Amino acid sequence: MKDDKIALVSGGNRGLGLETCRQLLEHGFRVLLGSRDLDAGIEAANAFGSEHVAAVRLDVTDSDDIAALAQHIEKIHGRLDVLINNAGILIDADLGDPASIRDTDAEVLETTFRTNVVGPILLINAMLPLMERVDDARIVNISSGMGQLSGMGGQYPGYRISKTALNAATCIYAAELDPARFSINAASPGWVRTDMGGEAAELSVEEGVDTVVWLATAPEARVTGGFYRSRERIDW
Ligand SMILES: NC(=O)c1ccc[n+]([C@@H]2O[C@H](COP(=O)([O-])OP(=O)(O)OC[C@H]3O[C@@H](n4cnc5c(N)ncnc54)[C@H](OP(=O)(O)O)[C@@H]3O)[C@@H](O)[C@H]2O)c1
Known about the structure:
single chain; alpha/beta; binds NADP nicotinamide-adenine-dinucleotide phosphate; Rossmann fold; 15% strand
């Protein structure tokens, strides 16, 4: 049990997070499926019919949840090999179409930032002591092309700025963590058919998480400090 590789996925109960859990199970990981609604997480985990997946309560905006989860992983597994910062929200559209930066308000910006940026940073910091115990620790931050500074467009300012900031956090961690032991990268899944992406999106969830799971598992993806889409490095 102590030798099994352990992966934690935030927002694992649906969408890209759920598919990431499925593929990590296929890669032989013990998967901790994070869900802010524990019942939804248990239902999602049970549907796999595998004893190698367990639901854990995780609201990334709740510091108590994060601390309790770190203690739980310490007690049960004593290590963490892979952390997928997948949980995210896009609420700019609640202001109405076209969600212009001229119409945004403090609540949209702050709520988005708390979930998409502060949450992942606090989660990484809580998990680092557990990840320092493994030789090949991998962190993947699920970003978005909408946060790509080099191709920034209009609309959805809260979401865009939050993903740009998550990319910046990725770079800062990469600069501070030992690259011989830690890989931390950002991944853009593309436009994917989920509740967030909508039915018109071009990619399936299987396609959307391909680069995420590759960064988390592949020997050749033992790289750090990059932004990736379709297994290729892209501009920030
Ligand atoms: N779909 C796309 O086209 C696309 C494109 C680029 C990037 N992304 C990114 O990919 C990630 C997953 O997106 P998705 O399309 O799968 O979205 P989704 O279908 O809306 O699922 C979002 C997931 O995040 C969880 N979540 C939201 N706030 C949370 C919080 N405070 N604590 C813990 N979990 C929380 C949700 O939990 P609940 O079920 O409890 O709400 C849900 O599990 C996001 O970071 C998103 O920005 C998506």
